[in-house]
UniProtKB/TrEMBL annotation:
InterPro entries (UniProt xref): CAP_dom, CAP_sf, CRISP-related, EGF
Residue intervals of the EGF-like domain: 234-267
Keywords annotated in UniProt: Disulfide bond, EGF-like domain, Signal
Keyword Signal: yes
One Pfam family linked to the record: CAP
Protein name (Swiss-Prot/TrEMBL): EGF-like domain-containing protein
PROSITE patterns: EGF_1, EGF_3
Gene3D superfamilies for this protein: CAP
Organism: Marmota marmota marmota
Segments passing through the bilayer: none
Signal peptide: 1-32
Disulfide bonds: 257-266
């Protein structure tokens, strides 16, 4: 488990007014870490952000993740998690302090990564804070898997951690001494910034966009300008679904029905019994043996009377 690493300033300038980086250097308090979330069953937290703010933060994360350099071959598309947003708000309400660590078996609890920024109230918007985290990437060397010039990059690496697929954020105004502050918190699952044998691993695999997506997320999401790409659960271009456990072939937009069902959507139940032939699943009909005919192949064509 990673421990919080306090930072005295941002890793990159981004598109910030000239005064802001100086202020952040003097008073910014930030860290990124991984720790388990709160156990289920606790009281519901109030919404930290409205739907518009949640949408903007999720869209910004996905847009930034889809444009990393060098290109990412396995970057997941993120979805909003209200439970993570509640965790983020709970931590923001504590002025960014860590939430209690679970005492239960950590193997049964998915890990959560944190990006936390504590700033004077009103100094920056949440979108600007996320942009600041991403700007730390200017100081990150993907080849060396480390920050250059002793800079802080852990916010950037968590933001672009390839396997993090769930996001929730919250903010809260609090006081540090006599100073009004605002805590900005985002929670990510699964969390990133992991080390192997004492060495920090790269947040994603370099390569052509979506070239290393796993089978479960083999779709490739692209922005409106077709820039970059994020691995996602394949969409359904056919705009249809198969009933009765039928399987939809997305390439042909046809349903492959289980035994006993037919129709375009596998909605027709078959009750045909072929007396002298084999059952044709695709058409819910019989293919009669030589010498027999009829819907269920009951009749011998060599005889004048049906076979009983």
């Amino acid at each position: 488990m990673l421990q919080p690493k306090p930072s005295l300033g941002p890793g990159g300038q981004g598109h910030w007014p000239g005064l802001l980086p100086v202020l952040l250097t003097l008073i910014g308090i930030a860290w990124a870490e991984v720790q388990p979330p709160q156990p289920p069953g606790q009281a519901q937290m109030p919404r930290a952000l409205n739907r518009k703010e949640s949408f903007l933060l999720l869209s910004l994360h996905n847009r930034l993740r889809s444009r990393v350099q060098p290109p990412a071959a396995n970057m997941r598309r993120m979805d909003w998690s209200e439970s993570l947003a509640q965790l983020a708000y709970a931590r923001a309400a504590l002025c960014g302090a860590p939430t209690p660590i679970l005492t239960s078996d950590p193997r049964r609890v998915p890990q959560v990564g944190w990006n936390v920024q504590l700033l004077p109230a009103g100094l920056a918007s949440f979108v600007e804070v996320v942009s600041l985290w991403y700007a730390e990437g200017q100081q990150y060397s993907h080849a060396a898997a480390e920050c250059t010039h002793n800079a802080t990059c852990t916010h950037y690496t968590q933001l672009v951690w390839a396997t993090s697929s769930q996001l929730g954020c919250g903010r809260h105004r609090c006081s540090v001494g006599q100073v009004a502050m605002e805590a900005f918190v985002c929670a990510y699952s699964p969390g990133g910034n992991w080390k192997v044998n004492g060495k920090t691993i790269t947040p994603y695999k370099k390569g052509a966009w979506c070239s290393l997506c796993t089978a479960s997320v083999s779709g490739c999401f692209k922005a409106w300008d077709h820039a970059g790409g994020l691995c996602e659960v394949p969409r359904n271009p056919c705009r249809m679904s198969c009933r009765n456990h039928g399987h939809l072939n997305i390439s042909t937009c046809q349903c492959h029905c289980p035994p006993g069902y037919t129709g375009r959507y596998c909605q027709v139940r078959c009750s045909v019994q072929c007396l002298h032939g084999r059952f044709r699943e695709e058409e819910c009909s019989c293919v009669c043996d030589v010498g027999y005919g009829g819907a269920q192949c009951p009749r011998c064509t060599f005889l004048s009377t049906p076979v009983t």
